[in-house]
Amino acid sequence: MKSGNRTLDRKTVEVLGPDGQYQAYIDVETETIEEATATRSITRTYNPGADGHRHLTQVTESETQQPGDAGTNVVRTTSSVDLDGKLHVVEREVTATTKGSESENTQTTVYLPDARGNLTPSMQVHEQQKHGVDGDVQTKKTTLLPDASGGWQVFEVRERTVKGDAQDRTTEDRTSRRDFEGNVSPVSQVITKEANVNGQTTSTAETHSVDVPGSAREGTLRPVQRATTVRKTEAGQTVTEQQIEVLYPGAPSSIKTMNIVVVGTSGSEETNTTTVQYPDSYPSVVSVEMRKSDQAPAIRVQGAPSGNPDVPVPPTTKK
User: Contact, 313 vs 54, CB < 8 A?
Assistant: First the structure.
């Protein structure tokens, strides 16, 4: 619903009740006001009460300032309704983004109420993204938490490097985290290689971690598992095969799953097969699950069409 630079959208989610009839589960209304260099929005969430009427449970207000092409500033405040029906701020998030020709930097500070109800900074997230001339993308996300002296200390660092294109891509994810001694050191690494050839997508992910089941932490990254996924569509069906190789002792040597989905005009059929192979043994099928759907989903999402916000929205028509 649009009037000038103001829009109002409404979304209703219904679920099947005990009597087999659809009933309201949640209503979400979002009002947006757009100006030349700023956008403000208010999202109100309603839930049905015991009296059969909808009741306001949460309000999120967001304001985005974009003075130019160099960046944006966003302030998002979330309030919840207490037992007395009063709104109280439960979180405020302030984000500042600056953009350059080859990089983008984002700093987010999250404020939470303290024991006296005053908003105090509880977490900071710094994220930097760089684009290389060859199409490579490097991302570094650092999470900081308050220390005992009132300053900030690094809790976690996540780094990602993406090389290649949609046909042939390699992604490396590295995570470092602060330990009980105050040192920030690597805890996991995942290298994923993806290839898309003739409509078939193949992805292989190798995971290394300092935590290996059944072993004490040694402080060095060790191989944990290798997962290979092949997805292809042919003859009206989509087949997804995944094989997970466990690379530490005392566990199944491999777990293989196959998912086949056939979609037709009258519904869909899905088959899931899981096969486990233990060391020095033949593969054994441990589960076969088959699903057939020829009915409407149990959850419906209905959005109100755009129009004048002053015109009432017609009630939901239930089937």
Answer: no
Total residues found in the chain within this entry: 319
**Structure-derived torsion over alpha carbons of residues 164, 165, 170, 174, reported in degrees to the nearest 10:** 90
Q: What is the dihedral of CA 295, 301, 307, 312, to 10 degrees?
A: 100
Q: How far apart are CA 83 and CA 253, in angstroms?
A: 53
Q: How far is residue 14 from each of residues 11, 18, 27, 53, 196, measured CA to CA in Å?
A: 10, 13, 9, 14, 38
- Rounded to the nearest 5°, which phi and psi values hold at 293? -125, 125
Q: Are strands 87-99 and 71-81 parallel, antiparallel or unpaired?
A: antiparallel
DSSP 199: T
- 204 vs 282: CA distance, rounded Å: 24
Q: Does the global pTM surpass 0.70?
A: yes
**188 vs 294, residue with greater confidence:** 188
Q: What is the pLDDT of residues 38-52, one digit of tens each?
A: 999 999 999 998 888
What's the mean pLDDT in 175-201? 93
pLDDT in the model for residue 303: 62
